[in-house]
Specification:
The complex is a heterodimer of chains A (186) and B (139).
Chain A: H1 10-18, H2 22-43, H3 47-63, H4 74-92, H5 95-101, H6 117-121, H7 126-137, H8 142-149, H9 153-171
Helix pairs in contact in A: 1-2, 2-3, 2-4, 2-7, 3-4, 7-9, 8-9
Chain B: H1 8-15, H2 23-69, H3 74-100, H4 113-138
Helix pairs in contact in B: 2-3, 2-4
The chains are: A mainly alpha (186), B mainly alpha (139).
Chain lengths: 186, 139
């Protein structure tokens, strides 16, 4: 008897998808589409653009499924594809350059006493948000981010550091509660 | 990565996928796109196969005609003779089939290379048209 799709591991499904299995790929999409769409929104994409890019990323992933060797997670692999597509799109529209010029436009953080990553990300400047999302959301290394965004490595590192400081301040839970155990609403 | 650049708590928050109420719609849209893409690819491959087939038939015809008349190169002549005899055998087989169908007056042997080429091309176009029609029915 064949194993139900829902019980199969991502690597196994990806191997079947690489052989043309669209049903297996559909299962992978069902499992990870929210994570990929969420990452793109966290990077600063509007919901409709995020969805379009996520669709393109999954189509690319289907065409390149044979390249996925299971060294990382499948979700991480698609997230990196999606992140690169978004960067390409943003660079084409010259939005990123404008964002760098407008670095101090971020709103001031306030302490609502709850952990909402998406809300906290809105308090970062766009380059900080992008660098943080690429680093923590897409799992990209700093040199990789620097190359993808065409920025000096030092600039990427400072965006990540400043962004993290702001996020920590924003996400700081009330005394006696750890960040990891706090309620997540994002 | 130093502590300034990495925060496991924030990493954990990023790892949590937000809830998307329209996840099923997203998946359906993607499946539709993938299906459309594979149809376009199938069409492109059919077209490429058709063009390749036409070129191959044309080349085969000209080889069999040219080589039969050349006798300067022994190997080339032998190959030409081989192709010609295979062609004659095929013609004889097809002719006997036509005889049985009551179409004995249709002499394939009397046809020129160009006539055979156009017959083959027509057959390939008919096959491609049938493929396209089947595809459009699926769509």
């Amino acid at each position: 008897m064949t194993q139900p799709l829902g019980d199969r591991h991502d690597v196994e499904l990806a191997a079947l998808a690489a052989a043309g299995g669209r049903r297996e790929f559909g299962e992978l999409v069902r499992r990870h589409s929210s994570a990929v769409r969420g990452l793109l929104r966290r990077m600063g994409a509007q919901p409709s653009l995020a969805d379009d890019i996520a669709q393109d990323a999954f189509i690319q992933a289907f065409e390149r499924c044979a390249e996925f060797r299971g060294e990382g997670t499948f979700a991480g692999w698609v997230k990196r594809i999606a992140a690169r597509l978004y960067i390409k799109r943003v660079a084409k529209e010259a939005r990123y350059v404008a964002a760098i010029d407008n670095e101090d436009a971020a709103p001031a953080p306030d302490h609502a006493g709850r952990v909402d990553l998406d809300e906290a990300l809105n308090t970062l400047s766009e380059p900080e948000r992008l660098c943080i999302s690429l680093c923590h959301g897409a799992g990209m290394a700093h040199p990789e981010i620097a190359a993808a965004l065409n920025l000096p490595l030092g600039t990427v590192k400072s965006h990540v550091k400043r962004g993290l400081d702001k996020l920590r301040a924003r996400l700081q839970p009330p005394a006696g509660q750890s960040l990891g155990s706090a309620q997540h609403v994002g | 990565m130093s502590a300034d650049e990495f925060d496991p708590d924030i990493e954990r928050l990023f790892a949590r996928a937000p809830h998307m109420p329209d996840a099923a719609l997203f998946t359906a849209r993607l499946e539709q796109k993938l299906q459309k893409g594979s149809r376009v690819r199938f069409l492109a491959l059919t077209l490429a196969g058709l063009i390749g087939g036409v070129v191959a038939v044309r080349e085969t015809m000209s080889v069999s005609l040219d080589m039969g008349s050349r006798d300067s190169v022994v190997a080339g002549a032998a190959l030409g003779n081989g192709i010609q005899s295979a062609s004659l055998n095929t013609q004889a087989a097809v002719q006997s089939g036509l005889d049985q169908l009551g179409l004995a007056h249709l002499e394939l042997g009397s046809m020129g290379g160009m006539q055979l080429f156009w017959i083959a091309t027509g057959a390939l176009i008919a096959v491609a048209a049938a493929g396209v029609m089947k595809l459009s029915q699926d769509v």
